[in-house]
Every structure is written in structure tokens, then in C-alpha cells.
Amino acid sequence: MGEMAEEKTKIAIAGWGNVGRGVYESIKRNPDMDFAGIITRRPFEVKKEFPSSSILDMNLFDFASFDYSNPLSHSDELWFWLHGRVDVAVLCGGSKNDLPVQGPFFARHINTVDSFDTHANIPEYFDKMNKVAEKYNHTSIISAGWDPGTFSLERVLADAFIPGAKNYTFWGPGVSQGHSDAVRKIEGVLDARQYTLPIKKAIKEVRKGGNPELTTRQKHKRLVYVVTEKSFSRERIAHEILTMPNYFANYDTTVRFISKDEMKKNHTAYPHGGFVLTSGTTGNNHKALIEYRNGWDSNPEATGNILIACARACHRMNKEEKSGAYTMLDIPPAYYSPRTKGELLSKFM
């Protein structure tokens, strides 16, 4: 990176939900970013959210009819819309059903950043994205956000700084977007919020340097509020939630069914946060503890800010002909920042 000002990065938002709105807000806060448009299944609903729908008349792309199982589906149409308009597409779909098929599809056509957060499936998703992005000379940053993402960085750094240490991650209390989205995908569910609740006793034991062996169930509880269609079985929906692998099966989970009005009244905010703690010893058996904490009033806006920082890095890397898939672990920290090398050395070192 040099000292000269860089051209603006043109961003398209693929998927207009809570994360997509967070990305849009972040674009407005970063002078080196340009809003290039929205790729959506719901163009008419999106236009209603903007003061003047004419702003988006030429900046909306409807992909409701796309067949992701066929990589050539609408390829020419999408390529012409992207060409010259977009540097990076930020993919804001859900990790359970959307990103596994949308990620490779878009990586054929453009540089991408996404927040795929099903931890157990990240290696498989990385391989899939790397294969496509390398083939088409694009750069794809996957699993960006705060966990996976910034928490991943903290786990790796602390593990290197305290050899042989134990690592602990606690999430919440707060709303998990990925888990809430997974519940909303269940047939008969109209809306859902999933609250992740850390078990305070476990955090206290780690901070004391006890290095306990903790199971998934001993670290967190999950609380799910669900609004359903009347004609669907609540018993069946609850069973699908409680047995969902990678999301709820390994946790003590409580499911509560509520009305639309109660959801709107009590569960419109999306706060979240958490802790990464690494506990071990340095030389001569002296105790050592590294703790990193996030606290967000708005989980979607926090994720949007991190995705935009990664889009900046993605654009820079692609200009350096670094194609393929990457995670936040692979990227020099300076690439995330809009600051010049001189500013980083004088203000942040």
C-alpha cells in the first residue's frame, strides 16, 4: 500500500435483510466506498425503504428466478449488470441455505465477501469458494464478521502468544442472526429471534485461571422466540429446532411461541457481543490470561462494518492479482484500514 489516495471501491449488496441494511449504513460512513446497487429477490419491497425509489431504478438487480444449481443461469445478464459497476459484492444471505449455493455462483462473476458462520462447515465452504474464485481470477473473503472473523483472529493470536494455553469463546447475551435465520427457514415459521446466553459460572472459572474442561452445553444456553402460522404444528417446529445439528442439538435450548405483536414490541433490537479468553502460563509457570470482548448494540450494523473493511481488503488484494478464497486470518491488518501507511505507523503503532 502506498501513500496515494486509492480509487473508491464500488460495493453491491447481495441480499437485502438486516445484514444488508448494516452494510449499506457502513458504506455511507466510509468515504472510500461507493454504493453500486442491490441484488435482491424483492425489488419492489426494497424501493419502498428509500426516500426516492428513483435512486435505485438503475441500481437494482432481481435474482428471484435464478437457478443456482445451474452456474450458467442468467450468467450473461448478471455479468452485464456487474461489469464496470461493481468491484466487490457483499453477500448477505443466510449461512444455512443461501451462501452455500450463492457464494460459488457469485464468485464466478465478481469479487465477494460473505459472513458464512456455520463453523463446522467452514473448511468445506472455503474449498468450494477457493476453487471457483481461482478459476475466474476473483478474490473471495469468506466467513468475515466477528465470529467467525475478529474472534478467529484473537484465538489465533492468543494461541501463538501463550503456547499450550486453553481457548474459550463465550457469546452473548444477545441475538444471533445466523441462528435466528436458521429457525426462520423452518416451514411454518413466520419470524424468530434466538438469544445466546453465556453461563456466568463458566466465565468466572476461566477468568480465575482454573482452565476447566467445558462442554458446549456447559458454556451457553439458547432461548428461541418463534412466531408461527396457525395451521402448522408447534410441536413439530419445536422438535426441528431442538434437534437441528450445528445450531441447537448440543445446547440446552428453550423454545417459546409468541405473537407477532409481542415480537414487534419486545424483540426488534439486535444486540450481541461476547468474549474470547485464552488462559495458560508463561515461563516459570506464571499464569497468563488474554481477554478480548465485543459489545454491539446492533449486531447487523457491526457485521456490516466488518464486511466493508473486508471488502476494502478484497479489492486491494484482487488488484494485486491475489485470487482465490481467503479468511480474515490470511489478510494483513493494514489492508482492512482506510489509513495510509504513514498514518498507521504514526497513530496506531
Describe this structure in words.
This protein is α/β, with parallel strands linked by helices and 349 residues long. Helix content is 36%, strand content 24%. The strands form three sheets. The protein has a seven-stranded parallel β-sheet, with helices on both faces. Strands 8-9-10-11 form a four-stranded mixed β-sheet. Strands 7-12-13 form a three-stranded antiparallel β-sheet, with helices on both faces. α1 (18-29) crosses α12. 40% of the residues are buried.
- What is the CATH architecture term of the largest domain? 3-Layer(aba) Sandwich
Which runs of at least 5 residues are low in confidence (pLDDT < 50)? none
Q: Can you give the mean pLDDT?
A: 93
Largest sheet: 7 strands, parallel
Radius of gyration: 21 Å
> What is the CATH topology assignment of the largest domain?
Rossmann fold
Distance between the termini: 17 Å
- How many helices does DSSP assign? 13
In percent terms, what proportion of residues is strand?
15-25%
CATH homologous superfamily assignment of the largest domain = NAD(P)-binding Rossmann-like Domain
Task: State the domain count.
Answer: 2
Number of strands: 14
Helix fraction, binned, reads 25-40%
Major beta sheet, strand line-up: 3-2-1-4-5-6-14
H and E order: EHEHEHEHEHEHEEHEHHEHEHEEHEH
- CATH top level of the largest domain? Alpha Beta
